[in-house]
Specification:
Layout: H1 3-13, E1 25-29, E2 32-35, E3 40-43, H2 46-49, H3 58-69, H4 82-93, E4 99-103, H5 106-125, E5 131-135, H6 144-148, H7 153-156, E6 166-169, H8 174-180, E7 185-190, E8 193-194, E9 200-201, H9 204-216, E10 220-224, E11 255-258, E12 269-273, H10 275-278, H11 294-307, H12 310-329, E13 335-341, E14 344-349, H13 353-362, E15 365-366, E16 368-369, E17 374-377, H14 385-401
Helix pairs in contact: 3-11, 4-11, 12-14, 13-14
Length: 402
């Protein structure tokens, strides 16, 4: 089929909840995607911060082949397998966590985190300790619980009533959060870097203040690192970039949710937690048919093992600085501000980001927005310095054309 035949077939049979680009992707290599007509595009989306190791990675392919050779794509969580145990151990070794629960997506991870938080709240504070505090501009997913913590009328209003028991404070304002705290709050959930909300970076004082509030009210602090975690900011976990050593404990959560880049594009989510949270969860309290399968967790172990290497993370940090510095040199009146950390950058514009995304295709550039006027750059972590220079050159041409 040619591109138009594929598009027509899809539009005839696939529910139209996505606004898709006007071409059909056929293959990828490194940080480049190719469509069915042979056109090449430098990818600054990475599947929306998913493809950390880019496309057609040899290590991922080898790991998948070895996992497939076992013949076990799925065996259910009723049975032990080595890959999910090894992955859980690695995630704990590289974080604050004592235990891990696997699921299939970021939204599922946040749903599970809410359930675990309410279980914890009831165990230590009684039946009224069930409230969850979230923040303005947050995005935690589109399932009913995660959506309730995503304060956007556009997403929420068609599906009300949502899960009750969620309240909101202003992002990066500790006093706003304090005004919402009381003995009924069981958890505070926050993104160290807000993704869909416009690439807003939490300040050190804000995260440290939330940690103090959680301790004061015996609530759990949940970090949603679905988009900003697993190396994207230049540290394995985004919150680890705030402080090291003993002071790093001021920024550690009780629960962390991860998903997007964990398994190189295969569906996985993970809920990392402290032992005191795990102690309140019992057999049968939660589960998932497909979560933690041997193939997916084998690939995730490979991804995390590589990304966690100090040299790899140092390269991400350096490439993130290069990207930021080059973006600052673009002489365009449309750029209002730059935000972000590492290879997660938001370019605030005075025009619609969708217009830049659409025009970028002609320059061989794949981009995505993060709100109406924010352009989000989240390329594969393996993007080269030469490719970063080319990305910025193409973006500059795109902006000048507009």
């Amino acid at each position: 089929m040619n591109a138009q035949e594929v598009i027509d077939l899809e539009q005839s049979h696939v529910l139209g909840v996505y606004g898709r680009a006007p071409f059909v992707l056929a293959r990828g290599a490194g940080s480049t995607l190719y469509d069915t007509e042979g056109r090449a595009y430098l990818d600054c989306v990475a599947g929306i911060a998913v493809n950390a190791l880019g496309y057609n990675d040899a290590g991922v392919a080898q790991t998948m082949g070895e996992a497939l050779a076992s013949g076990m794509l799925h065996v259910s969580n009723l049975y032990h397998t080595a890959p999910h145990a090894r992955l859980a151990a690695l995630l704990c070794e590289t974080s604050f966590a004592d235990k891990v629960h696997f699921c299939n997506s970021g939204a599922e991870a946040n749903e599970g985190a809410f359930k675990f938080a309410r279980r914890y709240g009831r165990a230590y504070g009684g039946d009224d300790k069930v409230e969850i505090l979230a923040f303005t501009n947050a995005f935690h997913g589109r399932t009913m619980g995660a959506l309730a913590a995503t304060p956007r009328p556009k997403y929420q209003e068609p599906f009300t009533p949502l899960m009750p028991g969620v309240r909101f404070a202003e992002f990066n304002k500790v006093e706003s959060a304090r005004a919402q705290m009381d003995a009924t709050v069981c958890a505070i959930i926050v993104e160290p870097i807000q993704g869909e909300g416009g690439i807003h970076v939490a300040t050190p004082d804000f995260l440290a203040g939330l940690r103090a509030l959680a301790d004061e009210y015996d609530a759990l602090l949940i970090y949603d690192e679905v988009q900003c975690g697993v190396g994207r900011t230049g540290t394995l976990w985004a919150h680890q970039g705030y402080c090291t050593g003993e002071e790093g404990r001021l920024f550690e959560p009780d629960i962390l949710t991860a998903a997007k880049p964990l398994a190189a594009g295969l569906p996985i989510g993970a809920i990392l937690m402290r032992q005191r949270v795990a102690d309140t969860i019992h057999k049968g309290d939660h589960g998932s048919t497909f979560a933690g399968g041997p193939l997916v967790t084998s690939v995730a172990h490979h991804v995390v093992s590589r990304v966690a290497q100090p040299a790899f993370l140092a390269e991400v940090e350096a490439k993130g600085k290069l990207l930021h510095d080059l973006l600052e040199e673009i002489n365009s009146p449309h750029i209002v501000a730059l935000r972000g950390k590492g290879l997660l950058v938001g370019v605030e514009l005075d025009i619609e980001a969708a217009d830049v995304v659409a025009r970028g295709y002609a320059e061989g550039l794949i981009l995505v927005n993060a709100g109406p006027t924010v352009l989000r750059l989240a390329p594969p972590l393996v993007i080269t310095e030469a490719e970063i220079h080319e990305v910025v050159a193409r973006l500059a041409r795109t902006l000048h054309a507009l």
